[in-house]
Each structure stands twice: as structure tokens, then as C-alpha cells.
Amino acid sequence: MKIYYSLDDIGTIKNPVVTTGSFDGVHIGHKTILNRLREIAGGIEGESVLITFHPHPRKVLFPDTAGKTLLLINSQREKIELLRKTGLDNLIILEFTREFSKISSIDFIRNILAAKLRAARVVIGFNHHFGHNREGNFEYLYELGQYYNFGVEEIPEQDIHNETVSSTLIRKALLEGKIQRANAYLDHHYIIISELYPGSSTCREMNFPTMRLKIDEDSKLIPCDGVYAVTVLVDGEYYKGILNIKNSLPPEIRILEDILIDVHLFDTGHNLNLTGHTAIVFFAKRIRDELAFSDATEMMKQLEADQSEVEELIY
Description:
2 domains, Elongation Factor Tu (Ef-tu), domain 3, 14 strands
């Protein structure tokens, strides 16, 4: 997958089949659009193209209201990794600014889709809007597509168990710790990508060493407090693990630095030091709430029980 951060960097893309949007979560609805992109591109010897934006438009347009409280399922690094796995050919990440937001839908079509990319086809999701004040829609895009000589297709609304798939539903499930539901909506495991840092000294002294994850984007959504069954990919190797999330502040107060995320990996060997390495953490299930322990013995007994449960859960 080729990645571009500026329209000026883009060379010639053969018969571009284009879609656009935030694609937070790269969920099953997004994958339906991307699969259709690849299908069309394959039929016309073309290439699939996604135009997305960073930061999220709501963060820029409504910084003190909707944007201030918006939590994103993926950091930009995570979104790139998930998009790479879909087989997308070209990813264009445009900086979203107030000035960019003022681009009209006709200028977006004329200057970007037609003049810059020379789009052969444009595919959009159900009820998609674009351009200044979200004035552009399918009908408008179809009409101008005839003028600028590109085809337009709208993907029907996608449902799972009669619930419309949306990033909002996925965020709600994650914040409630309903990992398996979120994973079903996503059509993949919820992930966190982070470097690994030294973890709890208490756990290390109990011969249950942990490593700490640190989130590099303030708007990254972290699931609710608790203990989770995870699989962790480091340097091409997969490890089963237990991950603990603990926020020392009330749920309505979110300071990222006060959210502690520690992971214990099984079967890493006594001499394996993964500190400083990059990990991809795949969440499988929330297995219990945070608990208070009377002593180290009680804590160790519970951690051993957690490990046994994860060993049975993840094969």
C-alpha cells in the first residue's frame, strides 16, 4: 500500500477507483466499501484509492463541543495498519484544517477527484456527505460524475443483527467492555499499537512481570477498566497475555497519563526483554472487573486464575 500525505506527492495512479471518509475502526461496513473498490479496480485494471483525513474533522470544526469529547477507535498508526491488511492500493491522508473544510463539494470533485486523481470510478457509503457544510451527496456526485467522466456507486446500508454498523456503536461497546460485540462489528479484533515500557514493580517482584503500554494520541479510545484476555504480536511472534486497564480518576474525567495499561505475556522465557519493542495488542474478551486484594498472596492467586482462563479462551 502506497501512502501519501499531500496531493502534491501523488504520481500517476492507473484508473483510480476512489472512496473518501474517516474510516475510524475500519469496521465491517468500511470493509464492504473497500472490497467493492478492489473488485471494481480489478475489473478495469485500476487501483483502489482511499482519501482520509487527520485529524478527525470533528476535532477541528467543533473543538469545544463534539470534537472535544470524541474518542477514536484507532490512532492513525493503527488505522494505517488495518487498512494495509485490506489490500488497499493507495492511501491518501490529508491534513484537515479549517481552511480545508471550506472547500466546496464541487471544488473537491473538480480539483481533487477529477483534475488531480483523474478518477475512473467513485464509490461512497450509504448517506455519505462531503464538502463544505456537507453539501455534497450521492445525487450531486453522480450528476457531476457524468460531466467529469467518472462513474459513481453507492454501497447500501450494512446491518449486523438488525443494528446499523457504525463507529458510534463500536465505541459504545468498547467503553462498556463488550469486546466480543465490538469485534463482531469491526470484523477484526480491537487493537492497541504501542511501544513497550517497564511495568509494575509489584508484579515483577511476584514473578509476574508486566510491561506498560503508552498511547500516543489523546483521542484514542481506551476500553473501560478491567482485565482482558489478549494476544500480543511482537517482532513477528504471538504471545497470549493478560492486560489490565486502570484509571485512577472517575470515568467522567479522562487524563490519558492517568490511565494505566499493563500487559503480562505468557511463555516469553525468563531472559526475553521486550522493553522498547513495538507491540500490537489484539483484544479477545474482558474477563473481570478491577479487584482490590488484601495481600500479595490473594493477588497472585487471582492472577494465576486469570491466566488459566485466558489459556482456555485463546488457542
